[in-house]
Design goal:
This protein folds into 2 domains: 87 residues, no CATH class; 157 residues, no CATH class. The strands form 2 sheets. It has a 4-stranded mixed beta sheet. It is elongated, with a radius of gyration of 29 Å. A hairpin with a 3-residue loop joins β1 and β2. The longest helix is centred in the middle third of the chain and has 45 residues. α5 packs across α6. By secondary structure, it is mainly α.
């Protein structure tokens, strides 16, 4: 009887492999990418692709097939698998029926199992989702840095410019309907501007600077850069001050749906309600002060 051995997936999936039908060596394809120097490229995707040259990697998979259910007695390293994972009778049954079984790992780090399985000497099959996860991490870090170093300041500039434009409209319009619309616009842009200029609870910029300076002294090989947050003068007109203040209070309370002070009239029969619970920073937006402020302001803009 032909013997086979198990490899372990890093996502805590035990597998004996899968039947693979050999495929012919792929024929290299040609991707026509216009030169950036020739002028403007209409597709942003092609603009990025101009810096990438695909490499052909010819692979001819060849794995001997097997039939189900598996005979676990014929698996050369099943004793090692059983010793490492202590499979229950039900898990062993699923392994026999499907040639793989998913077991709890006890953590949410997609990379950590690789090291643990390597230490145990268990053969590892690297799944494609692991590589996709690395791409996701890279994208997330790129986005985080752009939001911190570029978009944060840009959102301040946009909010300030639009509020000043709306203020000019309010002061110049004579028609009462247009004047009220302009007033609400002033309030609308004042809210994110205040969010971007207001420290979150517990943040002290001088303390943050001191902590980075202390870190750099102790870790000269891994210095961090302190970036003071952009500050602008924010003067909220008296004719929108109450509305802006109410919106800011609702955002900080983040207690779910509440009638909006800006988007409703005092006699609204069916008032618009904003979901203020969404203004709690999450994900990578909890990792720095500018990201926390940016999250709230961007959430306001929708």
């Amino acid at each position: 009887m032909k013997s086979i051995s198990f490899v372990a997936l890093a996502a805590a999936v035990l597998t004996a492999g899968c039947q693979v039908v050999p495929t012919p060596t792929p024929t290299p394809s040609v991707l026509a990418i216009p030169s950036v120097s020739e002028g403007e490229i209409s597709s942003p995707k092609l603009a990025m692709a101009a810096f990438y040259e695909p490499e052909q990697v010819p692979i001819s998979p060849a794995v001997a097939p097997w039939s189900l259910p598996l005979d676990l007695d014929g698996v050369t390293n099943f004793a090692q698998i059983q010793s490492t994972f202590a499979l229950s009778e039900n898990q062993k049954r699923l392994l026999e029926e499907n040639s793989f079984v998913v077991v709890p790992w006890g953590g949410d780090d997609i990379v950590e199992p690789y090291g643990a399985l390597k230490d145990e000497g268990v053969p590892i099959f690297v799944t494609s989702d692991t590589l996709l996860h690395l791409y996701h991490i890279q994208f997330n870090e790129i986005l985080k840095r752009i939001e911190e170093e570029e978009f944060f300041d840009d959102l301040i500039d946009i909010s300030q410019a639009m509020m000043e434009r709306a203020r000019g409209d309010y002061e110049s319009f004579a028609d009462e309907t247009l004047k009220e619309a302009a007033r609400r616009n002033v309030a609308y842009f004042a809210v994110p501007l205040k969010l971007l200029q207001t420290s979150t609870e517990g943040y002290d910029e001088q303390e943050a600077r001191r902590e980075i300076e202390e870190w750099n002294k102790a870790n000269p090989w891994d210095e961090k850069e302190f970036r003071p947050l952009k500050k602008v003068e924010v003067s909220i007109p008296s004719y929108v001050a109450d509305d802006v203040e109410e919106e800011l209070k609702n955002i900080e309370a983040h207690e779910g749906f509440q009638p909006s002070a800006i988007f409703n009239c005092s006699d609204s029969v069916n008032p618009y309600k904003e979901d203020y619970s969404q203004y709690v920073p999450r994900g990578h937006y909890t990792r720095s002060e500018p990201l926390k402020r940016y999250f709230k302001a961007a959430m306001w803009y929708g």
